[in-house]
Specification:
Elements (H helix, E strand, L loop, with lengths): L11 E3 L2 E2 L11 E3 L2 H5 L7 H13 L21 H32 L4 H26 L7 H7 L2 E3 L2 H28 L12 H20 L8 H23 L2 H6 L4 H16 L5 E2 L5 H22 L4 H24 L3 E2 H5 L4
Parallel strand pairs: 3-4
Antiparallel strand pairs: 1-2, 5-6
Helix pairs in contact: 2-4, 2-7, 3-4, 4-7, 6-7, 6-8, 6-10, 8-10, 8-11, 11-12
Length: about 350
């Protein structure tokens, strides 16, 4: 975790091409899965809804949306210093996350083409959306005289293997939390246009609808595989992925509070709103959700933030390396303990709350 607290790298592979930020527990990850297991999935329990979602993907509502206009054609040198660094990091992290989705969906589309054509087409069309998002973000980075070599990123990043059900949990939450992040920023800046420091935020309303549709696809796909939602193991895994996504976002965003302040947002309040809305949305498909309105939830996350700051201070100190190891043990143990206590908090029965039969 500690490496993610360091300032983003300004080193370049070649002029204008940024060295990708170092991979840590808190950075966007690249995934692979069991393609054969995915191909064998029976979609018949929810075939009609999946077909309707496929038709929406085919319509391609945003095919003309990601076009840069004249507002981009100016110098952005007035965004300078730490604000510029944080903004470039925001663009890089967002681009990396979107590109990760593109790679996974594109490979799924290729591998499933002859075995499960409905799933294959859905994944191919979602990869189209993610490619647009990543390209638009990477082009935005060029306004700050930097870009990412996405081909280099493809070859240099490690890939994490997840079984299909874990891919479903993780990508569903990633798409839905992405929707709430984008729409919350968009609505804030719509009400406070003086805080919109760069034109990319004007695109967030339509953009987040792509995220929402992708999330709806994974919602329908999970309900076509009820074994992923109905047993005791599913309940444990749903809690795990909810906590992982929420804690990762909270730790990332608090350490980048100055970026959100530049947009007129208070990072903690922003995250609490996004977490609440994502948790409510997840309750429409997950058998249970987290009790994020319990004060204990954020009390423990704040202790994780404090310990992450201690890790950062240790990493940046001049203490000999072998001593740093021992200094890191207590804050790392404390973070682990807080996360365990959060995981063990009594969850909310989403079936009872929403009255959804699964």
């Amino acid at each position: 975790m500690v490496d993610s607290l360091k300032k983003p790298s300004s080193e370049e592979i070649r002029p204008g091409v940024k060295v990708p930020s170092k991979e840590t527990l808190l950075t966007p990850r690249f995934y692979t899965t069991d393609f054969d297991e995915m191909a064998r999935m029976d979609l018949s329990p929810n075939e009609e809804e999946l077909q309707a979602i496929l038709e929406e993907f085919r319509v391609d509502y945003n095919r003309h949306h990601f076009v840069r206009d004249e507002e981009f054609e100016q110098s952005w040198d007035h965004i300078d210093g730490e604000k510029r660094q944080l903004f470039v990091e925001f663009l890089e992290r967002s681009c990396t996350a979107e590109f990760s989705g593109f790679l996974l969906y594109k490979e799924l589309g290729r591998r499933l083409k002859d075995k499960n054509p409905v799933l294959a087409e859905c994944f191919n069309l979602m990869s189209r959306d993610e490619a647009r998002h990543a390209g638009f973000l990477n082009k935005a980075m060029s306004d700050f005289n930097l870009s990412l070599d996405l081909g280099f990123l493809t070859k240099s990043r490690k890939y994490t293997f997840f079984k299909p059900k874990f891919i479903f949990y993780a990508t569903y939450l990633s798409e839905k939390i992405g929707y709430w992040r984008y729409i919350t920023i968009y609505r804030h800046l719509e009400a406070h246009p003086e805080d919109r420091i760069y034109p990319i935020f004007r695109f967030f309303e339509n953009w987040c609808q792509d995220e929402n549709r992708h999330g709806d696809f994974f919602d329908a796909l999970m309900r076509a595989q009820p074994q992923f939602l109905n047993d005791w193991k599913a309940k444990l895994w749903c809690r795990f992925f909810l906590l992982s996504v929420f804690a990762t976002m909270y730790l990332n965003d608090i350490q980048r509070a100055d970026f959100y302040a530049a947009l007129g947002l208070e990072a903690r309040e922003y995250d609490k709103h996004v977490i609440l809305k994502t948790n409510e949305t997840a309750g429409r498909v997950f058998p249970l959700v987290l009790d994020v309105e319990n004060p204990e939830f954020y009390d423990r996350l704040e202790k994780c933030v404090q310990n992450n700051e201690k890790l950062s201070a240790i990493a940046e100190s001049n203490t000999p390396k072998f001593l740093k190891f021992f200094q890191k043990v207590p804050p790392i143990a404390s973070i682990g303990w807080q996360l365990l206590r959060l995981y063990l908090m009594k969850p909310i029965d989403a079936v009872a709350t929403h009255g959804v039969a699964r």
